[in-house]
Amino acid sequence: MHVDTPKVERGTVTTQAPRAFNREMYHDHPENVFYGTDDGAQDGSFGEFAEFRAHYEGVAPERREDIHLISVVGGLYGLNLIPLWKPKRITIFDINPTAITYFRLIRRAFTISRDARDFLDRLTTGNYAAENEQEEFVRENIRMKQEGNLPRERGSTKRPYEQSWQYAFEHFDLTRKLLTEVPLEIRTEPMESDSFSKWIRSQNNLWIYASNITQFHYFDLEFANPTNVVVLQIIHPEQPQLLDLAPLSGGPVKVKFEIPLKAERLDQ
Predict the structure, then answer these.
(1) Domain regions of the chain by residue span
(2) SS3 breakdown of the chain: % helix, strand, coil, rounded to 5?
(3) Residue-wise pLDDT tens digits, 78-109
């Protein structure tokens, strides 16, 4: 049995990711952190998010009770999924250690801020702790991004944070509460690694945000019995893919992280 998502990439799927030639660009490169996401609609409308919300609200209520959110850092679009999916566990991962530092600082500033305006003011003034040299580097990059003068040799700046994290800001108190109280695990490794594959295989209740990883890597992940596993990726602005594995549950399932995502039962 084989399942595809309704929205697919047009054209022929190759055996190699479209941008595999520069797949190493994020491996421990401090200058390749994205300070503000470009995932989703490029007009700032956040229009793609309605599909994610409709899916979440449409699943059986019991599937929403014990979600483990797994998200790549990237530009931190996944911050919006925290108040939407209301996870009981959060795992953040990235191959780039500086991206992990970026997440830590954003979380730190978020959890001590009164509201979205206070949070943005803290980012602009650097009014939150930096505990080591790398954190000082990232904090300064965030400050420069807010002032509109972040040099490309220090990092990439995309859309403003007000556009990047619209849903998180609209539900600021809930996002802050979840970032403060929900158990958090951080992993500095790629999704295609053996360690990630072994760690994830026997788990369930996973709702995964993979951003645009498959532009750089094609790989497979297996799930022992995914009765409640969802995978979301955004490759092109108007073509998000949300793959729900529940219809394939009852045995092991392989997800092919490609463009588009595909899934198949392994015992049929």
Answers:
(1) 20-265
(2) 40, 20, 40
(3) 999 999 999 999 999 999 999 999 999 999 99
